[in-house]
Amino acid sequence: MLADGRLIRHRLRKDMKREKVMINMAALTVDALSNCDVAIA
Q1: Buried b (16+ CB within 10 A) or exposed e, 10-26
Q2: Domain-located, residue 22
């Protein structure tokens, strides 16, 4: 994982070439927390 929370993944495209995908874990976490109704106490 990179320092800013991104996770590097390789994904196979339809033409079978590898594509580097950056998954921003921080953005995913914030998005998931803002979408759920559970209050963190």
Answers
A1: eeeeeeeeeeeeeeeee
A2: yes
Determine contact, residues 27/7, Cβ cutoff 8 Å: no
The CA-based diameter of the chain, rounded to the nearest angstrom, is: 47
Average confidence (pLDDT) over 27-38: 72
Q: Which two tokens stand for residue 21?
A: 């995908």
* Residue-number span of the structural domain to which 17 is assigned: 6-31
C-alpha distance across the termini of the chain, in Å = 28
Average the pLDDT over 27-36 and give the result.
Answer: 73
Number of domains in the chain: 1
